[in-house]
């Protein structure tokens, strides 16, 4: 500060941008990663608030051209506090009142971080009575542990479990209140939108960067034309290629866990593989009690219990980690997955059909011939045939279910042997 209390970065009508940034960052410490600002409170989600702080710095000394100067200084700040990395920290959770390590250690000290939750850690917080009562009305008891583990899973930036969560029902059960509670816990670390848009819009993925959770509270039942993007989001542990409109693509990490509420599950037009469905956890909501009287203030009451709900979710995270990132899946939930797969995979129905083939232990069929019979069955039933790759992949993955054996030794004449299956006799001549 100069002797006349004028900052050193003010030189007549000009601003020394470097000195300004140094002075500004002393008062408002930040780092910039890939052009995004972070403080000890996590992601700066609204840069307009940052512009207001710059404006307040400038206005005692600058009276003209302020909007342009503010925007320019914001870009200089972005370069001044640029950092090459802000490491992912899966051994701790950044909360409003400090840092909680997964070994149980807590410190009120804060550090620069990608994500800070809008909830405080209070080990003595009251049990979330309203929350647990709500869940007991919404879900079957055997499915609540999976929801608890998934909420816990979202507390850290990790895709190790490689699952997305669907809560389905007929409507009116209160599923959307799960999203409201998640918003109370995660704040700006949660985004809402359409999973279908994520799968089809090349710019939508970049918007999920630095988020812990992405919620679709009204799942579009339109079948996905492609599933690669969604499967990548669910399983990504390495940087992905990200695009923003008008900008050059770059590599970035995505750890936004997907949660959707709707009347059905995510379906795909062409991908009916086990690999697609096994990434889904499908919880079925109870039918709404016709005698239930809804509390119009329930959402507010649930959010008031967020400190206790955080402890509940933390318990789920510890259980998930102890179980090597395998969720507690009930028979009911597994049945939901099987049903969704059957709905989206006509190979299941083909394998139940009659007149096209039969199971016979001492017979064999080449993959190509078996697939052609399957295509004929699809044509006869006005159904879309999956690819030969999907067909063979499904049969290999479920060979034990049908008492089949995949082999590379099916004899087709002229000394040639090809891939196929033991235990199948074709009743129709492949066309």
Determine the CATH topology of the largest domain: Rossmann fold
Quick one: CATH superfamily of the largest domain? P-loop containing nucleotide triphosphate hydrolases
As a whole number of angstroms, the C-alpha radius of gyration is 28 Å
- Could you give a short account of the major beta sheet? 5 strands, parallel
Number of beta strands? 18
Beta-strand percentage?
15-25%
Helix content: 25-40%
Strand order of the largest sheet: 10-11-14-9-15
What is the overall number of helices? Answer: 15
Mean pLDDT: 91
**The top level CATH class name of the largest domain:** Alpha Beta
Number of domains: 3
Q: What does this protein look like?
A:
- The relative contact order is 0.11.
- Strand 1 and strand 2 (14-15) form a beta hairpin.
- With 431 residues, the protein is α/β, with parallel strands linked by helices.
- It has helices spanning 17-27, 47-58, 66-80, 129-138, 144-153, 176-186, 195-200, 228-235, 274-277, 298-304, 306-322, 331-344, 346-350, 367-380, 388-397; strands at residues 10-11, 14-15, 31-33, 36-39, 42-43, 92-95, 98-101, 106-107, 164-168, 190-192, 213-216, 240-242, 250-252, 257-262, 280-284, 357-366, 405-413, 416-426.
- The chain folds into 3 domains: 10-80, no CATH class; 129-342, Rossmann fold, CATH 3.40.50.300; 350-426, Winged helix-like DNA-binding domain superfamily/Winged helix DNA-binding domain (Arc Repressor Mutant, subunit A, Orthogonal Bundle).
- 36% of the residues lie in helices and 19% in strands.
- The protein contains 15 helices and 18 strands.
- It has a 5-stranded parallel β-sheet with strand order 10-11-14-9-15. A 3-stranded antiparallel β-sheet has the order 3-4-5, with helices on one face. A 3-stranded antiparallel β-sheet has the order 6-7-8, with no helix packed on it.
- The model has no long low-confidence stretch (mean pLDDT 91).
